[in-house]
């Protein structure tokens, strides 16, 4: 414990020295590349804006003061890893790495001032405790630093505690969140199962098994042909609270996945009744409306959202400082970049699972080695996660760009080489980045665009490459 404390203290002292190269603005990644949505509101009335990407902004009557009764609200949203990278929105607060829950920009076209708090709800597919809302502050190079953190609404914490009570009352006798017991480990369950399927299985697994559902039958076979106790009286709200509690637990330890035979069995199935897991974020996803005279309240008082109040326009980021988070371990990471010597490169670390996007600087005493927290390459990272190093710079009307994908570990030295390409080809490469963990992308030396270097996951299943011995697979036709 003492050594960890000293390590963390050293990181804090050294963090400011990591980016020791001369900083220049990176025009290749910019918030201007994000879509701007506009909404006209009558400021004399209550308004709720429901954005295209599922955010909710509630604006009480009189909250905005302006010479005009009608004001146009501008929104930019960066909730996905790809949007965060495209916009160049690094996740750092005065050098400390952050894990983001989503970023949003709000502004008024007309001259206006906020006189009463406006509440923002950012959708999330799982809740993480102790997140804070950071305010974006641009430096003279237009880089955004996140500061002045305030806690988000504590309502999700209270609701997750209710979910914990539901787990204790209904599930704990058979399930351990992290390892196999009478039944499988359940932490982070909605990242592995479709929520509609979970509703059906939790309420009556025997009925789902009898229907011929492939996954239900596979689990039934794996777990000794014993159907789970039925819970027909649990409401959607209660089940959502239960699942949210289990999803939040995923951040607190490794989960033992005992039903790994599912993939092997699915490779042998011709029946494709089961739908792959989907991300279930806000109930209002893909809306683009203004609700006038009615303050929209998200389902279940905000579970599924990070909520905070603002009194000024600008950029906001829901984050947590990664220092001290469970699963983050002392590591060293040095990225070696060739092909851009003597240039002021922009080098980044991307960790999609944590929505981390960190800018790198030269390792002390090196000319082409880059670190992402301190200049001795030390950093706290979760291990076994998909990660990327991106390096870029504009030169003589072209873009020099390189990338490498790797899996995080205790000590690593990923290497990448810059290649010359047009700006259009660079934008195509950024758009093609695959942050979902399926497949590996690299740069093609022939055409300077991103190509896939792995077999499609579906094809692998069809050819039976995922088949494993010891799996009692049902045999449907």
Fold and architecture overview:
- The chain is an alpha+beta fold and 477 residues long.
- It contains 9 helices and 28 strands.
- Strands 1, 5, 6, 7, 10, 11 and 14 form a 7-stranded antiparallel sheet that branches. It has a 5-stranded antiparallel sheet with strand order 12-2-3-9-13, with no helix packed on it. The chain has a 5-stranded antiparallel sheet with strand order 18-17-22-23-26.
- It is globular.
- Residues 1-21, 268-286 and 438-469 have low confidence and may be disordered.
Percent helix range: 10-25%
**Are there runs of 5+ residues with pLDDT below 50, and where?**
1-21, 268-286, 438-469
Indicate the structural class.
alpha+beta
| Overall average residue pLDDT | 79
**Biggest sheet architecture:** 7 strands, antiparallel
Count of discrete alpha- or pi-helical segments spanning 4 or more residues: 9
Question: Shape from CA axes?
Answer: globular
Task: Tell how many strands the DSSP assignment holds.
Answer: 28
Distance between the termini: 56 Å
